[in-house]
Amino acid sequence: MNNIEVSPIEALNAAIQNHNPFSKAGIVKEQDIWGKGFPDIPTLNAHASDAILQAVEKVQTSQSTQEKVTSLVLTANQGVGKSHILSRIRRRLEINGGALFVYASVNNYTDLNLIKYQFQQTLANSLSHTGSQSVMQWQEIAAAMANEGFQAINSASQNLSPQELIDRFDRVCASWAAKNKNFMNTLTKQVLKTKLKADPYIVRAVLWTLSEAETPFAIKWLSGEELDKSKAEELGLPANSGKTNQDREAESLNNVQQILNLVSYYSPVIICFDEIDVNTNCRDDGLTTPQVIADLVKRLYDTLEHSELGQGLVIITVMMPYTWTDTVNVMSGGIPDRLSTYTQKKPIDLKYLNGDSLVDVVGLWLQDFYQVRNLNPPHPLYPFEESQLREYGRGKPTVREALKWCAENFLVFMPPMPELPEEPIERFEFALKKELEADMGEDIENDSTIAKAIYFGFETLKGQTVDNVTIDDVTAEIKPKIPNANWIKFKIMGTENGRAIKIGVAVIQYSQSELVAGLKRLTDYQKFDLTRGCLVRSQSKIDKIKKNSKAYKLLEELVSVEKGGEVVYLIEEQIKPLLALRAVCQKCRDYNLTEDQIFDFIDQKQLTFENLLLREILSDPSGEMPAVDDEDESLLLEDIFNPPTNDDTDDGDLSDLFS
User: Fold this and answer.
1) What percent of the chain has pLDDT over 70?
2) What is the pLDDT of residue 210?
3) What does the longest C-alpha to C-alpha distance in the chain come to?
4) What angle in degrees, to the nearest 10, is found between the helix axes of 115-126 and 245-263?
5) Is the pLDDT of residue 418 over 90?
């Protein structure tokens, strides 16, 4: 950094005053596991992540069926970094491949009497996340299965990438349907020739994930949920209708075993049970959450140990040390042995920070902070001093404690705030002007921050009628919580022309794969109790969506007459006032104001009532598709993919369609 011009101290200090990167940084949520996550020091608790990856290698290379399943327990006190280790493993797998990743946040399990059914839903949802090939993990497995089916017909068939298969799959199905032939029947039959013990319905459902049109229904079925009879018949799957939750619970362990047997044939699987320490819930037989999860791990271990897991399975259970010693390790029936086989019933204990590791952690966090603002500090740890961090690190804090300490000490000397005006309304105007002038940095790109600002705007409008919509309430509690996975950020409830409405709002600035995941939730009105869905996203990001892509088809569904949803462009000039107003409310004490005063002033000046972004969300949807990239890449594939015209097509032509 010596050869780089140091930024003006005023600019550095202003950035520090306006945004604290350590605020709430110690709390890892489920979306952090699957998303970008936090800056990571690979050497911190490397013994734990290395052990997990070594366990994967062992089960993958072992020739013994009894060694195809192994398990580990990670123990550490709250805040030491248990979930950070899982996030590190997940990101490494996304970059380098090597295994499928399944993450079960037990804190989201609402009924311990349905633990196996809830885990089946977790398994289906986890495999819906993006893997190392930039498609869903389901689709990676489906592509491997399809390629294997093609090669069973013709050993010279080329292997196609998952994305190539996804791009062509629906067209092939339609081509065969035009000849009164069923492409999926043929492909499933070919795959089953190589997987004689596989459940044919599960094979079929996994293959359907290659279809952009049918993927949501296939995953819904794989999670154990019911399909409409007509849709089930179309896909050639049982409808799962008429089943109670107890019926599904009774079937789920076998379903999970069948799915894991199938997918692990192609790739090792890592299953992570996190946050099992909650003791406030009990099953009908009296077992607490840690006991129920330990029993589930044992059942998984026992049912899978002697099955044909070609690439192997690693089960990781994360818990507090006292949960292991006082609850799990004293359980009978060989449960402790099944939970920690890789280390012979010895949990892997995570270590606290020290002076060296704290300096590394803070340096990495601040590197991200300054880079996104194009700022160059005088030294990498500014405004901290290395000696200051090493001194604090001597106490061996947890990661959470250290980040909280950093948040509290991320300060610089700033000149005192100018004397505040005497009148409250003038103080409000002063505060709003100051926040509008502040550098909002990456807040404009942060889904959560944007959603909170829009949510705040609607909170100020409760009881008012805007564009024929009377806003009765706003809630961030979207149920069912686990399937939503925080994609739908909040719901607006009100009445429009005498009709009750419930508008679900999703803010998605991230990648197209993330957009697909969010749109799947936003278009499932029945599950999430919505009458309308609204996607908020920048026009420049909408423009990049390719026609015929999965995101495009989901957008079409959202704005269709049937769904009546809409896409609202995120415009900086419209969101910035909402970010500023929320900041004023958060800092009301600094400006000698109360929240009630702030809400009153917002109402008096109609600052949110006239906000175009909020009005657009409430307004009648246009029903028009937003403009997207017109480039039609499918034409480039015509010479490669040209369905035969011979009405006597047989299995021998199947691989030719994709070769």
Assistant:
1) 90
2) 95
3) 88
4) 40
5) no
- Secondary structure string (H, E, C) spanning 550-576: HHHHHHHHHHCCCCCCEEEECCHHHHH
Per-residue burial over 13-36, b if 16 or more Cβ lie within 10 Å, else e, is bbbbebbebbeebbebebebbbbe
Q: What is the mean pLDDT of residues 394-404?
A: 90
Contact in structure between 632 and 489 (CB atoms under 8 Å)? no
Residue type at 387 in one-letter notation: S
Dihedral sign for Cα atoms in the order 189, 193, 194, 197: positive
Q: Where are the alpha helices (DSSP H) in 423-470?
A: 424-437, 447-459
Among candidate residues 563, 560, 562, 516, the one with its CA nearest the CA of residue 537: 516
Compute the distance between CA of residue 45 and CA of residue 348 in angstroms, rounded to an integer. Answer: 10
Nearest alpha carbon to residue 211 among 142, 279, 290: 142
Task: Work out the average pLDDT over 41-64.
Answer: 91
The C-alpha atoms of residue 487 and residue 449 are separated, in whole angstroms, by: 13
pLDDT value at position 27?
64
How far apart (Å, rounded) are the C-alpha atoms in residues 84 and 42?
10
**Which strands form 499-507's sheet, in the order they lie side by side?**
465-466, 469-475, 490-496, 499-507, 532-537, 566-569
Over the stretch 574-621, which tens digit does the pLDDT of each residue have? Answer: 999 999 999 999 888 888 899 999 999 999 999 999 999 999 999 988
Cα–Cα distance list, 42 to 27, 49, 249, 353, 361 (Å) = 19, 9, 39, 13, 10
3-state helix, strand, coil in the chain (%, to 5): 50, 10, 40
Is residue 452 within 8 A of residue 443, CB to CB? The reply is no
Cβ-contact 355, 389 below 8 angstroms = yes
Per-residue confidence band for 543, with pLDDT thresholds at 50, 70 and 90: confident
Q: Angle 200-208/245-263 helices, nearest 10 degrees?
A: 80
What is the number of other CB atoms lying within 10 angstroms of the CB of residue 467?
12
The chain-wide mean pLDDT, for the chain, equals 87
Sign of CA dihedral 608, 502, 478, 570: negative
Q: Name residue, tokens 């062509």.
A: 168
pLDDT at 646: 38
Number of helices and strands (H, E) in the chain? 28, 11
Residues 18-39: pLDDT tens digits? 888 888 665 666 777 887 666 7
Which whole-number Å values give the CA distances from 44 to 270, 349, 350, 351, in the listed order? 21, 12, 9, 8
Kind of pairing, strands 499-507 and 566-569?
unpaired
Integer Cα distance of 347 and 334 in angstroms: 15
